[in-house]
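Quick one, T. Sequence first:
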Amino acid sequence: MPASDSPICECRNLNVVFNGRPALEDVSLAINANEVVAILGPSGCGKSTLLRALVGLLKPTTGQVLAHGQPLKGIHPGISIVFQNFALYPWLTVRENIQVALNGLGLDPQPAAARIAKCIDMVGLDGSEEAYPKELSGGMKQRVGIARALARGPELLCMDEPFSALDVFTAESLRSEVYRLWTGDEGKPANGNGGGAGNGKATAGGGSHSGTGLRSIMMITHIIEEAVFLADRIVVMGTKPGHIRQIIPNTVPHPRNYQSPQFLGLVQRLHDIIVSEHLPEVPAEAQAASAADMLACEPVPSVNLGEAFGLMEILRDNGGGMDVFRLDGLTDYDFGHTLAVVKVGEMLDFLDTPKNRVTLTPLGAKFLDADINGRKALLNQQLQKLGIFRYVVQMLKEAKGNRLPQEIVQEELVIRLPTEDVETLTKTIISWGRFAELLGYSSDTDELYLDQPVAQPAEA
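Structure tokens:
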């Protein structure tokens, strides 16, 4: 029986180097019994690398990894992992996918069946036992992943961005399910203690949540609100190389409410910690302007600008306006992509869409008449009118050297636009900004930067 006062897993002075480049530097962290620990930080800061090292899936370059105070050899025997990409066997049913977790445990058929049935019930999969993964929604697939992890009877459940592949509503539903499983129906920790970190220590021998043997949860996330909602301790990581910046105890009382003053206060504190590494203090009026731009943010469609300009040429060749369905018939796109290209033209004020028609605006005609430098200048002007570009430009203006790592820009975008694919969105922003000579990107340093001093956009 493991000692009750020793961490379930722990790393000391951990360093991980990949191909000569440090990924983690001097990281020390312990995961204790009866707590939820969230590892929070921007993409590329080494969150998943730290998780893999702690559970024995990755051997560190230097440093110690311990399990219950003893050097870890191989994979930690008391952990299960929930992955972000579901990782189900498509040829197995829900029940069979969960049953895979019991391999090697030596359970008799009756206890094994009872354990599987209990895990199915806990995550709300009753009635879907014989379904195959192709028949399930993303949320249901992840429920199978959680049930499979719990069926193993782990003392530590590791969750690597488990909701990132789901839409915002499904993610929130599953987040609440995990919260309920851990805290109990009353919204209090399952051991009966109601506070944040420090109020949920296991009794001698350790506690067990939901009757599964589960003692703790460690989760990876880049969403601040998710960390505040679920965690007792929040580990804030920094980048280049990955390191622990601060460990924040979460004292927001249970049951947690996203709109409570305590919740919002901790969210703001964590946000300030994350961005302060790259963004200096700015005057209040500049902060207000940035916030206003972010509120006005609308994601831009994933469209090549050449597609938009080509569609505008088609309109000019057809008298400056066409029925949208006839226009679609002249392109090689599916109808949804045609609409996305039209939307780009609308956002730039180059196109208008009265009823079912798409028409070229005077500004759009002016753009087509211009030479390449004139087009770049006009596009630069129009991009600066879009909230998402104003916000990114403002971040770069405030940053040291007018440069920021791409993952910091993505972190800001994912916080405010959680339903968007921020990697694709960032690529689109970079592509458009480069053409307009508004933004630049260095693949060597993975940084965005201001291409040149940004002038205020002129009125069209």
